[in-house]
Amino acid sequence: MAFSVNINGQDYLLDVPADTPLLWAIRDNLKLTGTKFGCGLAQCGSCTVHLAGQPIRSCVTPVSAVVGQQITTIEGIESQAATLIQTAWEKLEVPQCGYCQSGQVMAASALIATNNSPTDADIDAAMSGNICRCATYVRIRQAIKDAASELKEGV
Ligand code: FES
Ligand code: FES
């Protein structure tokens, strides 16, 4: 069966079984490999993409559930929030191995897009599902605060 999905502003017709995880379609069918497979169980956050601007776990989201909706992957984020997050990530050299980082950036971008003054509790709530085995959490928190501050100032 074919499913029409919009990814990064482009329409695709995916001829896959209805229960195919969106992550598989993104990586295997569309070759957008910035989104990573970690656990496959909605436990690690490495597969995070945006559905209409909100972070979702693409490993447990079937393609059939996102027909006609706007999906954004790490390759397609262009908002001011996302740009400021990525700039802060680079400035603070957040990544170590990097494996979890596209998911972290997607979650962090969605957070500051709706909250430009996140408290530690806000950051914990938004980011607790994104695991980093390299324990870059301190730099992630600081980068989120720096980017949010710049967003608030209208940089
Ligand atoms: S791979 Fe999706 S949450 Fe871990
Ligand atoms: S940077 Fe290595 S898992 Fe997060």
TrEMBL record:
It comes from the Bacteria. Keywords: 2Fe-2S, Iron, Iron-sulfur, Metal-binding, Oxidoreductase. Residues 1-77 form the 2Fe-2S ferredoxin-type domain. Transmembrane segments: none annotated. The keyword Iron-sulfur applies. The keyword Cell membrane does not apply. This is (2Fe-2S)-binding protein.
